[in-house]
## 1
Amino acid sequence: MKKTLLSLAVVLLSTMSYAQFQVSASTGYAIASAGMKTGESINSSGTENHYGSYGEGVNFQIRGTYFFNESFGADLSFGYLNGADQTISKVDLPTQQVDAIARARAYGASLSMVYKFTNNVYGRFGALLKIGGKTEAVVSNRADLTQTQLDQFAAAGFTLPSGSYTQTNYVEDFHGVFPLGFVAALGYKYDLNSNFSLFAEAEYYGISLKRKDSELQSFNTDLYLPDGTLAQAGLYTMDNLPAGRALKITYSDELTHAEQADPSKELAQKVPYSSFGINIGITYKFNSASKVQ
């Protein structure tokens, strides 16, 4: 027992004597990794799929790393993702034009182990967690009125010529269940002096997010005559949504047949956030305990 305690004490003392802490700040850009289908483009000649990941875009990170010895350390990172636009729907038809995109605005954290292969080359791997943010959908939809709709307006005493159309614009925010993913990186650092160094690294995120709910942030539909003259502003608004449209939608893995007819309930789906990116940043290294007299 005494030998075990002595050995443990020696390990702890050697670790404390080396203990080194550093902080880093970086920015970078990530592209989709194994992109999944995000939407479709439709025109008079056919339909085209769009693939991508909501993890694509510019990111900013702040990281603290604690080294226990010359090779091993632990890393805690917090970051923000300003996601690139992903196509949800692109429609170009004589009677309808739709332009719908979605983009991530997400906060995340990761806890990783760090290993120095050399004094300049290192790797890290660990767990990744999205801790906040949203996926924002921005939609523009111009649609010609059908004959049925024209007849309904005429029955209400509002006669409109053929070719009249509606212009709908709305913003909807999607929120997800907090997911757990995987992060791995390989980097190279260049020492400027004993405290500061620059680094560049290739980083992989493996993560997807299951939707929990969504909520409209804005909604407006205007009615136009065929020549573009505004016939009625605010035909539909946040206070007067059209039939089949809900202010807030909740997502679940199972719905009854009755619930499926409720516009405020939908089946859950997973959206991709996996990405591969390059980060560039600067590190400040505090003097290790071994150098403190």
## 2
Amino acid sequence: MGKTPVIAIVDDDEGVRTSLTSLVRSLGYEAHAYESGVDFLRQPPGNDPECMIADVQMPAMTGDELQAQLVASGRRFPIIFMTAFPSETVRQRVMAAGAHCYLGKPSSGDEIIRCLEEALAGDATH
């Protein structure tokens, strides 16, 4: 049996982190929650997740700034962005940099699951 996929959840809202962690675990994946991009970057690079679900609007470091740092350091894995403040400019920037999905908040569990399963399967971005 293969290793259980690890999903990193990066969101400054504790309620969102808790609900996403529960959703991810209900699908049989391992969830690691972080309250900021800075918190995530403290983790050793050798243990990258199979996928990340990240908020865009966070204090200290935005989701797209986190993505830029990861890409610049050669750390590439699918990222699903979620935001309560969707912006076409940000959507285009993160998708061009390799994001897998860009979802508004709130998003349905089904929508998040679809993006997550496509990302883990290596399907095309949305």
## 3
Amino acid sequence: MANQPDPSAFKYPRKTAFKLGKAPTSIDKLYKNKLDYKEKLNVMREEIHLLQEKLYAENRHAVLVIFQATDTAGKDGTIDHVFNGIDPHGLEVHAFKRPTSTELDQDFLWRTTVALPSRGKIAVHNRSHYEEVLACRVHPDIITDIQRLPLALTKNMDKLYQGRFESIRDQEKHLVRNGTRVIKFFLHLSKEEQRNRLLARIDDPEKHWKYEPGDLKERGYWDKYQKAYEEAIQETATEAAPWYVIPADDKRNMRLLVAAVLCEELRALNPDWPKVNVVQLEALAEGKKMLLAED
């Protein structure tokens, strides 16, 4: 029988230091076959849908879901499959690409801050402010040549990044203190599986549109990215805003685990339908009376 998803096994921080190389990219299948996978995912999607409806109606909490991953790990597909069917009134998805000139004129948290969820809503960030300690770490010219920071700040890059980690931790703690649940996913893909997926994009005409020559260039920085991800997770995995490092070599496993985490995190908020007071009950009774009188 297929295993049941256990979100806690992939949750950080832990008592021991986080090492990305020791985190699995593949685990035993959580499903028996394709039909079993779909049934398991549908059950969890229905629960997410119900919890999101209660969250929206209650209007007390917000939820921020962050996805980070290397190229081809499957962020888009995971978001599509897991959140499919969620009421669009309570869900916002933001994909953060190359910053605009307006965004570059602001501090590094600005463009994701303006996309934070309001109470009652779930906001999904496909990539996020973490790019500022990931892509920028691998390509320091983004800091020195594009972001146009004061020269005094860029003289000591290690100090600059430690300051960014501190700012991220502070903001996430602030969000949690004010009723926003912060759920962070790193979809952990192996280098060999990324190779296979890039080859599939090249070999399959229906996937040609997904392929960009820049993907191979970025693959050349694999080790630097792995180091940057490891440090980012080490520095920002807190009790208030933990990271979930999800094995991503099997897309179905990955989606089941992400859905299981979301169910667990939303349950912890314990959203409920708003209580109706006496005045509202009287209004409901009067409304029913008027509608029935139309007969």
